[in-house]
Amino acid sequence: MSLASLRQATRLARRELRGGVRGFRIFLICVILGVAAIAAVGTMRDSIQAGLAQQGAALLGGDAELELTYRFADETERAWMAQRAVALSELADFRSMAVVGETRALTQVKAVDAAYPLVGQVVLEPAIPLDQALAGDGAVLDPVLIAQLGIEVGDRFTLGTKEITLRAALIREPDNATAGFALGPRTLLKRETLEGSGLLQPGTLFSTHYRMTLPDGTDLAALQSEAETQFENSGMRWRDARNGAPGVASFVDRLGAFLVLVGLSGLAVGGVGISAALRGYLAGKTRTIATLRTLGASRRVIFLTYLIQVTALGAVGIVLGLLVGVGGVLLFSPLIEARLPVPASFAIYPAPMLEAALYSALTVLIFTLWPLARTEDVRAATLFRDALTEAPSLPRAAYLLATLALLGLLLAAAAWFSQTLTLTLWTAGGIALALVLLTLAAKLVQALARRFRRLGRHRPALAWALGAIGGPGTTAGPVMLSLGLGLSVLATVGQIDGNLRGAIARDLPEQAPSFFFVDLQKDQMPGFLERVEGDDAVTRVDRAPMLRGIITQINGRPAREVAGDHWVLDGDRGISYAATVPSRTTLTDGEWWAEEYSGPPQLSFAAEEAAEMGLSLGDAITVNILGRDITATLTSLREVDFSTAGMGFIMLMNPSALEGAPHSFIATVYAGAEAEAALLRDVSSTFPNVTAIRVRDAIDRVSDLLSGLASAVAWGASVTLLTGFAVLIGASAADQSTRTYEAAILKTLGASRRRILRSLALRAILLGAVAGVVALATGLLGGWAVNRYIFETDFEVIWPSALSIIAAGIAVTLLAGLAFAWGPLTARPAAILRARD
Question: What is the pTM of this model?
């Protein structure tokens, strides 16, 4: 490319741009919406991550934390922490039942010491000091728990066997973001208050957290390394203020990445609009291009002229999109922050802006390269013909290769930014499949419209509508692509959400237990079994000893070096023991130990998880239980189905390996709904230390989380639909002159305005219905794939969601079509026909 050609093309492009951007309005709207959506999501994500980083110590409750499972720190561990900390706080966290008369409610109890909280403030109502509220037998409760129990400040309730006084409502606890998924609202009290309650005894399920404030300048990484070396085999877990709420940060990062990928769908829709707008603009420039060729302009100069225009306008659209996306988040940051459960530091972050700009620039180039390439086919001899409509459908090989390279670069950028190659490829594949299906559908509907037009001889409005769809200059392609892709995303989200809710509401009640009872002591088991097994409404009872442990080593190597970041290694896991193969258990490989076996520890592992972790029979698995390392040989694999919400353990050992350790029992009870209230009342009254977890309540919590996720994704997908609507508006505006001419001819032949309006409405309804049906087909396919291969649940069509997609397609195209119907209906035939002459 010579410098002279570039100068000449720049000069020509500048002259053309002086005439304004009328032909590029939809182009700019599509770019702005795509950039704004991705920039807004990215800015939200980075703002929350920055807030979590800045408030790490407050979220964690200190500069660093050591967590232990089912035990308190020993003297050596306490001495190590005390030597390094400026201040130290100990708390225990567990679930229990709060009782008032016949009312029982599950609660997440936090038993604290006098130093709590080391960082941040607890907010109470009434606003009294925390030490005053927790003095004596006092406690503070979450307002939701207060409402569930039906009590007021000053009333008394029972935890275990201890009566406790409600002193205030707990409005905010500074370290709540680290609590994770909680099935019950919070109770906060002093550990001393629980003495004599029977709740924190050996073998019960609880975790202890030791928060430390450290001297200024402490090297957190070095201190973590020292702690992990010092307490390598203690089952200790470390967290510090560098990532005070790792679960929240990880969730925000993953959800943000997914929403950005959904935003790419919006850019794809915008790309369709960009391509259509550019084709229309260049079609109107045929004479200008032919004149330039007559005056000696080369193909390269013509191509560069319009490429420079597209680049300049694309840059303007990207800048405006960044202003809208980032500016919108900053403008509404007070409202957003008030609704967020975690801190956020709203500011301008370069990374999401760069990400949005890069995606958009690549999309603009991908969707404009082919229309621009067709300008080379305009010759001087075609001065009075529309050369662009006669050009070959495919450009030269160089442009095809360039398009493929740009697509590869876009996918690489998406995978790099999202850190999810698989999800990126699935998203790209879904978008590509939807575009192919919609393109084929557009071709098919045009062909069918031409074929069946004569069937409308006695229905003029229908005949005119079919003629407009199948005739020259039809906008069926852009309408189907832009609207259909947006509806495809919404259809997929709707089917996934509906099927997950269906699995929860339909499948689990037939299989899932009514209650999980935890913290059953060994001497309580006979009485417990007598009560539940003697109830005719109870159909099944499963019970097992319950411990928890952390896998620390595999074959003498750190577990994560062998199995990576598998979820089984993420924290402690439930462990049990059994002398014989449990009922309803299927061994897939290996052999079970003898019933009276008392040799070295042996281990049975869940088969699917073992395969994922690369485990095989004969491996030595080291598990830390209550600070003690137990190394067992893997001797069998078995099927474990967690989808039933029943009892399932990743690991089972032979009894002699574990039964000497302090532990409790867990039981699942399957009963009719009519028996649940009495069952809960009797068990909690007889065994106050036992915690009952109602499975349906847990399912409702999961359902609420899924609802929030689906809403977030649906809002992201709505931007795609909004972009599609903008493309529809552009197509309708570009089509208005053709429809006005048609209306003028029809009026001349005696057609009424009502009949012409009916024809325009029928055309919009037909295109919208077909786009909705194709979008539904792709949504069903996408929903089936996600439910089948990711969530591993059954799939069935959610008809309300499905029909709403078709209705949305019809409504959107009808609105867009009718918005531009006034011009054709009110135009004077004589003036229109004379202008065409």
Answer: 0.69
